[in-house]
């Protein structure tokens, strides 16, 4: 009696199926975007004589290798940094230069937000977490003041409208009109955050 041969499995289309699955997973998989600190570098300019900066218009923030915060030569907790930066930026030492400033108008502090510069210096052994936390607190100080002024002038928060435009919730002519107002607020409190070259450990 003749032996019956086993039926063969046709594997000719397996390559096509594998290729289709590969395309499916490539199209449907979402890749998490890296998050970083949004900074725009200034344009390259040939500056022969750097502008003279008064010491009172400079807010110096230092972080050492042990993640200790030194602000204006005084030890400070991270939770107090935001308010200290707000007080410096909003001081309005020269009243005629900043009618919208609500600070103490201390003549020993910044003249106006346009002249106020925050200088951050880290040690090479400063932890990345502390570096990010300091940056967040300083940017939050600017955002607080920008929100306050946009609320006063336009009835909405600067950060909310900026996020709405970035996410595409506001488009077209309306977005352009709001962007002009955002730029107006940015000019009132320009982000002047300077990062000095990190020091060697222990210096």
UniProtKB/TrEMBL annotation:
Its main location: membrane. It comes from the Bacteria. It is a single-pass membrane protein; Single-pass type II membrane protein. Pfam families: ExbD. It is found in: Cell membrane. InterPro entries: ExbD. Keywords: Cell membrane, Membrane, Protein transport, Transmembrane, Transmembrane helix, Transport. Belongs to the ExbD/TolR family. This is Biopolymer transporter ExbD. It comes from Patiriisocius hiemis. The lineage of its organism: Bacteria, Pseudomonadati, Bacteroidota, Flavobacteriia, Flavobacteriales.
């Amino acid at each position: 009696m003749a032996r019956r041969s086993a039926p063969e499995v046709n594997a000719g289309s397996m390559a096509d199926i594998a290729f289709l699955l590969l395309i499916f997973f490539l199209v449907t998989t979402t890749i998490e975007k890296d998050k970083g600190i949004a900074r725009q570098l200034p344009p390259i300019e040939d500056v022969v004589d750097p502008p003279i900066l008064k010491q009172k218009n400079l807010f110096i923030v230092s972080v050492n290798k042990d993640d200790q915060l030194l602000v204006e030569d005084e030890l400070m907790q991270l939770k107090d940094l935001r308010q200290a930066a707000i007080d410096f930026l909003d001081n309005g030492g020269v009243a005629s230069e900043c009618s919208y400033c609500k600070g103490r108008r201390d003549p020993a502090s910044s003249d106006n937000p346009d002249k106020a510069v925050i200088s951050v210096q880290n040690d090479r052994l400063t932890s990345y977490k502390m570096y990010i936390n300091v940056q967040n607190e300083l940017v939050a100080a600017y955002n607080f003041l920008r929100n306050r002024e946009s609320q006063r002038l336009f009835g909405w928060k600067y950060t909310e409208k900026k996020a709405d435009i970035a996410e595409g919730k506001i488009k077209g002519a309306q977005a352009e009109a709001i962007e002009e107002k955002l730029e107006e607020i940015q000019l009132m409190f320009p982000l002047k955050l300077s990062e000095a070259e990190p020091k060697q450990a222990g210096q």
